[in-house]
């Protein structure tokens, strides 16, 4: 019997054992779906106001930006918060989270330098049941 394996052929790798996939807790699944729905409502609001959505759920190691939108010479980095009330949603945009969004925005601008010369703004859109979404323009800024 002839050996058909050449000396340069690499031996076959052993199959990796499959990782057990944990089912997400029902609360986490519900929260994820609520977040996606809120982001869709926020994007629709921005489009209705004349914005063009440049990116959704932009992720970096520093943080995530829910929506990045442009209107004429302005780029808005938008945090979407869904809570039981609009007030609860407003309080959920913490200073730590603001810094993570600012850091992620810097990463996005590095990847999209053509937008760096435009006016930049950090907005929030608050979403609550039985309420219209509220757009807070310039909800926070990048200055220390």
Word description of this protein:
The protein is of the alpha+beta class. It has a single domain (26-140), classed as Trna Endonuclease, Chain: A, domain 1. Helices cover 32% and strands 28% of the residues. The chain contains three helices and five strands; from the N terminus they run αβββααββ. Strands 1-2-3-4-5 form a five-stranded mixed β-sheet, sandwiched between helices. β1 and β2 (64-71) form a beta hairpin. The termini are far apart. Residues 1-7 have low confidence and may be disordered.
Helix content: 25-40%
- CATH structural fold name: Trna Endonuclease, Chain: A, domain 1
Estimated structural class: alpha+beta
Oligomeric composition of the shown chains: single chain
- End-to-end separation: 75 Å
Secondary structure: number of strands: 5
**Arrangement of strands in the largest sheet:** 1-2-3-4-5
Provide the β-strand percentage band.
25-35%
Number of helices: 3
Largest sheet descriptor: 5 strands, mixed
Give the domain tally.
Answer: 1
Query: Which parts are unreliable, with pLDDT below 50 for 5 consecutive residues or more?
Result: 1-7
């Amino acid at each position: 019997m002839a050996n058909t394996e050449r000396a340069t052929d690499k031996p076959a790798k052993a199959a990796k054992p499959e990782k057990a996939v944990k089912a997400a807790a029902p609360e986490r699944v519900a929260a994820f779906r609520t977040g996606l729905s809120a982001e869709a409502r926020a994007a629709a609001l921005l489009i209705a106001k004349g914005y063009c959505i440049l990116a959704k759920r932009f992720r970096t190691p520093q943080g995530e930006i829910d929506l990045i939108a442009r209107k004429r010479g302005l780029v808005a980095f938008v945090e979407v918060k869904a809570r039981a009330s609009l007030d609860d949603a407003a309080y959920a945009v913490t200073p730590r989270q603001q810094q993570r969004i600012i850091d992620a925005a810097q990463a996005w601008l590095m990847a999209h330098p053509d937008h760096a010369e435009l006016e930049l703004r950090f907005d929030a859109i608050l979403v609550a049941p039985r309420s219209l979404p509220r757009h807070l323009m310039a909800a926070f800024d990048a200055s220390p």
